User: What shape does this take?
Amino acid sequence: MEMFIQQWLPIIGESVIETFQMVIISLFFAIIIGFPLGILVVLTRPGQSLENKFVYQILNLLINIIRSIPFIILLFFILPFTKIIVGTTIGVKGVIVPLVIYTAPYIARLLESSLLDVENGVIEAYKAMGIKTRQIIWNVMLREARPSIVLGLTIATVGLIGATAMAGLVGAGGLGDLAYRFGHLRYEVDVMYATVFILIVLVQGIQTIGNRLAARLKKD
Amino acid sequence: MIKLENISKVYPSKNGDVLAVNNVNLHVKKGEIHGVIGYSGAGKSTLIRLVNLLEKPTSGKVYINGTEMTSLPQEKLRKTRQKIGMIFQHFNLLKTATVYENIAIPLKLLGYDKQEVKERVEKYLSIVDLSDKKNTYPAQLSGGQKQRVAIARALSQEPEVLLSDEATSALDPETTDSILDLLLKINEELGITILLITHEMNVIQKICDYVYVLENGDVIEDGSAINLFTNPRENTTKKFLNTISQRKLSSSLISQLKLNGAVTRLTFIGENTGQPLLAQVSQKFQVVPNILTANIIELKNGIVGNLVIHLVGKKEQIDASLQFLENQGVGIEELEGN
Assistant: This one.
């Protein structure tokens, strides 16, 4: 046991850090892109304040197209685009772009459903008080949807961790890569078990934090 | 204060246009409370949303305090709405905000400074009698308390007009009464003009000066509350009146009673209960009045008494006694059997 730890801890530790790096950085950018996208989809919907059939349909189509491509294909499919954006297609840097592209539409969809769950009556009440649409988005829609947004982001984060497992294909490392290279290709079963265990703990931890935070934000 | 001129609202649909509100005219003077009553689907909700233009009218004009709302550009309309309070059947509070925040957030968004926000929240919470609940979340409040918060939120913007969209429909009878008392209080003490919609006749009875009966988008009858209660014309109106007092006798019973006399509804306005008049009738005309049902309805602006009597006697005597009662200012309505 001790030997195992001594031998593998640095490698596993590094993989954990790589996974965290990929998840945190991609999540950050995916939120920056996904949130406005989700809000726009809701607002341009028929019957909403910025109703615009054309924009709504285009956004829907775009989100659906990206959401239909499995990450492992997306990763290679957009290589030229990745190269333009970050100048490289390999390493952590190279995998961030596909991870963001993969997660942002997902977050947009999750946000859309959270926002649509906000009672229309409250929004109507604020309209009747003469409050600006922009203010209603921030202070009514996003505010009331907070608990379900947190849960949505938790789901997105777990999905993102899953996607980072494929990052090894472009040399970005991470836990998935570790399990594949050492656990599978080199038959180091212990490493496989250790990685799976860490991933389980990680996902459990994130889900628990997400649930608790959502419960605290929810006031009913 | 609130004036609707020939307001119509048409919703286009696949199976042809739906006329939700048809050529409605309505005028609420400053300080009055007017009520629109109708069954669900009559167009009430659409009608009240036409007043603050949450729904755009297909034709017609809306005036609030002399300003023609229908021609205002978006930004001006938004500003004008700040002076039109609105309360709802389902309260429409922020679930994630405390009672205090529920009133403070709109004020902040409307640009009032911190001190002003604080003063107003406290003032209006005390008017609705909820000062001790300011740090509570809506989920922990009863329906009546939630509606009080919503009323405080509407009042905190110091509106001239309050629109009430079925504000008591989700509440039990006792809570309904307390909310109606509160509405009456803000009408009297703050001078706020109120237009409400409801399907409950007791709301009309308790607080309305003037009533419109809405059916299929048309105002089929309107008049002062006293007039409507003493002299309803339309069947729908009568049906609504039946909901608050047992006015109806079975037609078989009426037929049976009519074999030896007349069955008549007498309506009295004011505190005259009719008792001495009936005594006079029986002395003067040799008829025996027999009271079948009796009730008194307290309206905001007066009392209406309702008496259904069975007059036993000769035909000429009965006619003469009814004539006498009519001359005394009593409303007479002969009831028909089957």
